[in-house]
TrEMBL record:
PROSITE patterns per the UniProt record, alphabetical: OMPR_PHOB, RESPONSE_REGULATORY
One family name in Pfam for this protein: Trans_reg_C
Stored InterPro entries: CheY-like_superfamily, OmpR/PhoB-type_DNA-bd, Sig_transdc_resp-reg_receiver, WalR-like, WH-like_DNA-bd_sf
Residue runs in coiled coils: none
Domain OmpR/PhoB-type residue range list: 124-220
UniProt modified residues of type 4-aspartylphosphate: 51
Descriptive protein name: Two-component system response regulator TctD
Residues within the DNA-binding region(s): 124-220
Naturally occurring in which organism (per UniProt): Inquilinus ginsengisoli
The organism's place on the tree of life at top rank: Bacteria
PANTHER family attached to this UniProt entry: REGULATOR OF RPOS (PTHR48111), TRANSCRIPTIONAL REGULATORY PROTEIN TCTD (PTHR48111:SF67)
Ranges of residues in domain Response regulatory: 2-116
Length: 223
C-alpha cells in the first residue's frame, strides 16, 4: 500500500513516516500544497494523509483539485483546527475522515485501516487466497498456521498481489506499490522480490504465476 503524507512540519512528517513504514506501508512525503497537487496529478495512491495549513496551496485547495480530477482516493485530514465548522468544511469538500492534532498514532493507524477496507469494498480485516491470509489490523501474513517473515518490500509485493488475487498485476503497478519517489528503483528488482516471495510460499496452496509481457497473478492451487 502506497500512502502520501502531506505535512509541512518536518519533525512530525519524519516521525509519522517512520511509524507507518514500520507497518509496511510505502510512504511518500511532501511539505507544501503545490507539490502535493502535482504529485497527486501524476501518481496513484491508496490513501492520502493531508494537513490543512500548508505553504503555497492550502489543504482544502489540494483536496478540491483532487476531487475535480475525479480522484476517489481516500483522504484523512490532519489539522489543529478541531472546530465543528472546520470538520464540516473538510468533509463537505470530499475528505473521508478527520483527525485533530494532537492525536494518538494508534488512532490514525486504525482510521487508515478503515479507509483502506472501504476503498477495497471489504468488511473483514482478513484477506485470504487459498491458505494465505493477511490480517490487515496486525499487518501480518500467514501461510496456514505459520507466520510469514517478509521484508517490507516483499510484504508490499505480496499485499498488492493478494488484493488483486485472480487478476493480473503489471510489473509497473508492483513497482509503484514498493518504491516511493525518493527510492532508487531498479527495474529488475521486482523480479527479485517476486522470486523471494515465491520461495516463502512454497508448501502452501497459493502460487504466483508469471504472465510474460503482462505481469504476475496470485492464484489458489488445489492440493
Amino acid at each position: 500500500m502506497r500512502l502520501l503524507l502531506v505535512e509541512d512540519n518536518a519533525e512530525l512528517a519524519e516521525w509519522l513516516a517512520k511509524l507507518l513504514r514500520r507497518d509496511n506501508y510505502t510512504i511518500d512525503c511532501v511539505a507544501d500544497g503545490e507539490d502535493a497537487d502535482h504529485v497527486l496529478s501524476v501518481q496513484d495512491y491508496d490513501l492520502v494523509i493531508l494537513d490543512l495549513t500548508l505553504p503555497k496551496l492550502d489543504g482544502l485547495q489540494v483536496l478540491r483539485r483532487m476531487r475535480r480530477r475525479g480522484s476517489r482516493t481516500p483522504v484523512i485530514i490532519l489539522t489543529a483546527n478541531a472546530s465543528l465548522d472546520g470538520r464540516v468544511t473538510g468533509l463537505d469538500e470530499g475528505a473521508d475522515d478527520y483527525l485533530a492534532k494532537p492525536f494518538e498514532i494508534a488512532e490514525l493507524e486504525a482510521r487508515i485501516r478503515v479507509q483502506l477496507r472501504r476503498a477495497h469494498d471489504r468488511t473483514s480485516p482478513v484477506i485470504s487466497c487459498g491458505d494465505l491470509s493477511l490480517d490487515t489490523n496486525l499487518r501480518q501474513f500467514r501461510l496456514g498456521e505459520r507466520a510469514l517473515l517478509l521484508t517490507p518490500r516483499e510484504h508490499a509485493v505480496l499485499e498488492q498481489l493478494l488484493l488483486k488475487s485472480g487478476q493480473t498485476v503489471s510489473k509497473t503497478k508492483l513497482s509503484e506499490s514498493v518504491f516511493g519517489f525518493d527510492d532508487d528503483a531498479d527495474p529488475t528488482a521486482i523480479e527479485i522480490y517476486v522470486h523471494r516471495v515465491r520461495k516463502k510460499l512454497e508448501g502452501g496452496r497459493v502460487r504466483i504465476v508469471t504472465l510474460r509481457g503482462l505481469g504476475y497473478l496470485l492464484r489458489h492451487e488445489d492440493p
